[in-house]
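Our preliminary data section would be incomplete without showing what the modeling component actually yields. Below, a chain of 364 amino acids is followed by its predicted structure, encoded as tokens that our downstream tools consume directly.
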Amino acid sequence: MALPARARAVPAILAVVALVFGVWMGLLRVGFALGAPPAPGTHGAMLVLGFLGTVIGMERAVATGRGWAWIAPFGAAAAVIAMLAGRPTVAAALLLVAGAALVAVFAAAYRDQPEPHIVLMGIGASGWVLAALTWALGGSVPSLVPWLSAFLVLTIAGERLELARTIGTSATARRWLWGAAAIVVAGSVLAWTSPEAGARLAGAGNLGVAAWLLTHDLARRTIHLSGVTRYMAAGLLAGYVWLGVAGALWMVSGLVPGTVAYDAALHAVFLGFVMSMIMAHAPVVVPALAGVAFPWSPVLWVPLGLLHASVLVRVAGGLAANPEVRRWGAALNAVALALFAVTVIAIVATGRKRRRAAAGHREA
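Predicted structure:
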């Protein structure tokens, strides 16, 4: 059962709200005086599960065409409201339900199409559930972050594994990816009792996933094409590099809060990798979710380039223990995300104007 467009707009709007508040909280954390947003301690949950969880849930609900699949994005969107209302316990409970619904979506998809990539994405969705459970039980941030990362890294790896079938992957290559994914999960489990050791192990897994993507992903071929195809491939490959950087930083630093590598290690994966995936997939995801045309425009290169430049500044500032450079890197991160949002809106609006003009010309 297809959900009406107006109903789809509800989680989409709340996803944008989660992004705005999450970025606001992030700017406060690096020292900008920008007032007092509600629930400032929910920065990570707001962005990863509130914003990205809602978007990924919407994408999968549209792809499956099952009405009940919308429990995932609506549950994540409701959790955003709970977080902003200062009800973290309610938010965690809603996120548990939403994550379980996403796992059920992949279970149903596997019954219809028993393929390895669906299993991998289902394991990623389980990372969402375990992250929400860790938060609900009062787990520390270092014990929570590996699960948040596992949710995104394994979900994206599963999507790319599906596309890799078009060019063929050897049994050895598939074992490589599954081995890296197993290390990500093992490190996340270990982080419950030993956060530093768990982060190091999960980092090794992330590095392995990044190396697999850089070696076997379809983007290695499509980068040689032109237009939107090259743009998407560039965004993907640049994101994979940041995942590799993040994996190395996790292995070295152990994600110990307060160390010089902590901020760099976190944002290399959640900004450099994940947000690059969002920007790269926008030409495909926006039409699917919003039901609108999204004509290709080279202007999209600007926010993508700014994102990666700003992450480089932020990571360099963090590793150099230079809070001022790190702060301005964070500010440029926010500018890149805002510019991307404005660019997407402008492209959609321009496409609508062109279609109306063409329709008017035909009628005349």
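The CA atoms of residues 181 and 205 lie 6 Å apart. The chain has 13 helices and no strands. Preliminary results of this kind motivate Aim 1 of the renewal.
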